[in-house]
C-alpha cells in the first residue's frame, strides 16, 4: 500500500514538472479558436533546418507546412534572419524535452509578437502531428495564441502534449545529439549549469519565398 501511494505521489510530481516546463507554466487552456480563423499561405515543399550546436554538432530537421503553415513560416523567417544564432537551450528536462529560442535566456522572452496556435484544442484541426521523440514544437504560455520564438524538441514520446501545442517538424538526423544534451546538469529551474549554445540555425526552403507571417499581440 505504501508503495502504491509513493508511486501516485511520484506521478503527480512528474505531471507538475511537465506543466511547469513549457515556457511560463503553460498547461493547456480553453480554446480561443485563434488559428482556426486565420488564413495562411503555406510553403509547398518541406523546409530543411540545419541547427549547429556548440560542442555537440549538427541537428537536421524537416518541417511540415501542411501541418502548421504559419508556425513553419514564423520559424523559418526567424531562423534565416539570424534570430536564433547565439541563443541557448535555457530549459532541459531529461526524458522529456530541450527548450530554446528565448533571446533573454530565461524562458520569458520572444520576438516582440505572438502567433496563432495551430493545434486542435485551439480550434485548428489540420495539425495531427504527435509529440513523439524528435518532434519540434512551439512553447507558449497559458494563452493558446502566445507562442513567438521559443521552441522545444522532444527527447521522449510525450502524448499528453498532443493537440495542446503546435508541433511542426521533426529531427531527421542528429537525434543522438538531443539525447546527449538532455543529460546535462541543470539547476532547480531546469536551466543548464553550463550554457548549451545554438551557434546557428539556417533553413533551406528549396528556393521558395517564405509567405508573410500572421502575427498577433504586436
Task: Offer a quick outline of the entry.
The chain contains three helices and eight strands, in the order αββαβββββαβ. It has 218 residues and is an alpha+beta fold. It has an eight-stranded antiparallel sheet with strand order 3-4-6-5-7-2-1-8.
Give an account of the 3D structure.
The protein is an alpha+beta fold and 218 residues long. The protein contains three helices and eight strands. An eight-stranded antiparallel beta sheet has the order 3-4-6-5-7-2-1-8. The longest helix is centred in the N-terminal third of the chain and has 20 residues, at 2-21. The chain is globular, with a radius of gyration of 17 Å.
Features:
218 residues, alpha+beta, 8 strands
Question: What is this structure's SSE topology?
Answer:
Layout (H helix, E strand, L loop, with lengths): L1 H20 L26 E6 L3 E7 L5 H12 L8 E5 L3 E4 L34 E4 L12 E4 L12 E7 L1 H7 L16 E7 L14
Antiparallel strand pairs: 1-2, 1-8, 2-7, 3-4, 4-6, 5-6, 5-7
Task: Provide the β-strand percentage band.
Answer: 15-25%
Radius of gyration: 17 Å
Element order: H for helix, E for strand:
HEEHEEEEEHE
Q: Which structural class is indicated by helix and strand composition?
A: alpha+beta
| Average residue-wise pLDDT | 88
Number of strands: 8
How would you write the strand order of the largest sheet?
3-4-6-5-7-2-1-8
Uncertain runs: 4-21, 23-32
What is the helix tally?
A: 3
EC number: 5.2.1.8
InterPro entries: Cyclophilin-like_dom_sf, Cyclophilin-type_PPIase_CS, Cyclophilin-type_PPIase_dom, Cyclophilin_A-like
Domain PPIase cyclophilin-type: 49-203
Enzyme class: isomerase
Amino acid at each position: 500500500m505504501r508503495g502504491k501511494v509513493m508511486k501516485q505521489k511520484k506521478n503527480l510530481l512528474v505531471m507538475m514538472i511537465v506543466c511547469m516546463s513549457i515556457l511560463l507554466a503553460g498547461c493547456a487552456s480553453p480554446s480561443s479558436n485563434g488559428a482556426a480563423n486565420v488564413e495562411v499561405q503555406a510553403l509547398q515543399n518541406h523546409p530543411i533546418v540545419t541547427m549547429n550546436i556548440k560542442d555537440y554538432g549538427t541537428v537536421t530537421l524537416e518541417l511540415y507546412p501542411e501541418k502548421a503553415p504559419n508556425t513553419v513560416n514564423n520559424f523559418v523567417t526567424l531562423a534565416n534572419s539570424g534570430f536564433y544564432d547565439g541563443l541557448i537551450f535555457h530549459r532541459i528536462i531529461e526524458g522529456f524535452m530541450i527548450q530554446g529560442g528565448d533571446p533573454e535566456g530565461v524562458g520569458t522572452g520572444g520576438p516582440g509578437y505572438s502567433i496563432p496556435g495551430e493545434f486542435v484544442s485551439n480550434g485548428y484541426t489540420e495539425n495531427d502531428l504527435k509529440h513523439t521523440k524528435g518532434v519540434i514544437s512551439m512553447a507558449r504560455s497559458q494563452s493558446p495564441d502566445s507562442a513567438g520564438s521559443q521552441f522545444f524538441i522532444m527527447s521522449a514520446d510525450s502524448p499528453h502534449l498532443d493537440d495542446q501545442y503546435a508541433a511542426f517538424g521533426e529531427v531527421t538526423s542528429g537525434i543522438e545529439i538531443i539525447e546527449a544534451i538532455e543529460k546535462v546538469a541543470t539547476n532547480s529551474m531546469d536551466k543548464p549549469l553550463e550554457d548549451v549554445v545554438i551557434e546557428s540555425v539556417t533553413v533551406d526552403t528549396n528556393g521558395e519565398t517564405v509567405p508573410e507571417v500572421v502575427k498577433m499581440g504586436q
